[in-house]
Amino acid sequence: MTTQNIRDFFTNLQAELSALVIMDLLSAAEGRLRDDFEKRVQSNDSSNISRNFRVIAEFCVRDRRKQPHPVSRLLAVWAKYVNHAKTSIALFNEYWPYRNWLAHGRWNNFPGGQSLPPADDFKDSVEMLLSDLSIPLY
Question: How many alpha carbons fall within 13 Å on the CB side of residue 129?
Fold first, then answer.
């Protein structure tokens, strides 16, 4: 093995570890959003967000062929009622396609033909989103 082969090996390994961290961050954010959705659906909260979430849940029960509640749909409700979160929601929505690319195979190009942004950018986006929505990360 040449020195260049070893460098390439560790560069590729570092890229894979970064991709795994990004997938974990996006999965954690998705889990927190879905958990908040379920809690709001089950509660008697009369906020606009909770009422809209109950409508989404009722639709999902009536039409089981549809995807239960895509994250984009939940974030659209949040964006409608929480003005200060619109920037963080927009940023998170830019990063969301990477979740599907990482989770369901990487045989295609990156979403939008771009390279994978640094894991720190995803971390900042997830933290800002959940903070703006007052949802704890853990």
Answer: 29
